[in-house]
Design a protein that fits this description.
Layout: H1 3-20, E1 25-34, E2 40-45, E3 49-55, E4 59-68, E5 75-80, E6 83-88, E7 107-113, E8 120-124, E9 132-134
Parallel strand pairs: 2-6, 2-8, 3-7, 3-9
Antiparallel strand pairs: 1-4, 4-7, 5-6
C-alpha cells in the first residue's frame, strides 16, 4: 500500500472519530430509597453496564455515571408507588457516527441491602452486548 493511501485512511479514520468520539456531556448522580417503600425493582436498560451490589446500610441506592447527548438525560430513576423504575434509553441520532460507541459505556450501579428480598425485573434491549455483572448479595 502506498504512503498516500495510508495517510488518506488515517485522516478519514481520525475525522470519523473526531465527529463521533467525545460527543456528549458527562453525567453522574445517586439516589436512595427506603426498602420499606419499595416492593419491586424494574430496570429497562438499553446500552449501559449494570452492576448489582450489596448495600452497606438498610437503603436501596442507585447511582449512574456516563455520557448523554444534546444535554438531555436518557436515564430516569423514579418511584411509581411501591415500584422503583430505572429507565436508560439510547436514542438514535441523525449523525451515524454518534450511534457507535468508541468510548466506555455508561454504568448503572444498584445497591440492595443484604437481607432484602424483592422481585427484580431486568430488561436489556441490546442482545449482542450483555455486560451484566451480578454480584452475590450474601
Amino acid at each position: 500500500m502506498s504512503i498516500k493511501k495510508l495517510f488518506l485512511i488515517g485522516v478519514l479514520g481520525l475525522s470519523f472519530c473526531m465527529t463521533g468520539c467525545g460527543n456528549g456531556q458527562k453525567v453522574d448522580s445517586e439516589k436512595e430509597f427506603s426498602t420499606n417503600d419499595i416492593s419491586e425493582i424494574v430496570i429497562n436498560n438499553s446500552s449501559w453496564n449494570l452492576k448489582i451490589l450489596a448495600s452497606s446500610d438498610d437503603k436501596i441506592h442507585v447511582s449512574y455515571d456516563g455520557k448523554i447527548e444534546d444535554g438531555v438525560s436518557n436515564i430516569q430513576i423514579l418511584q411509581n408507588e411501591s415500584q422503583l423504575v430505572i429507565q436508560q434509553d439510547t436514542t438514535s441520532s441523525k449523525n451515524i457516527a454518534t450511534q457507535f460507541s468508541f468510548g466506555k459505556a455508561g454504568k448503572i450501579t444498584l445497591y440492595i441491602p443484604k437481607n432484602t428480598v424483592l422481585p427484580l425485573d431486568i430488561s436489556k434491549r441490546q442482545i449482542l452486548r450483555l455486560p451484566l455483572n451480578l454480584t452475590p448479595l450474601l
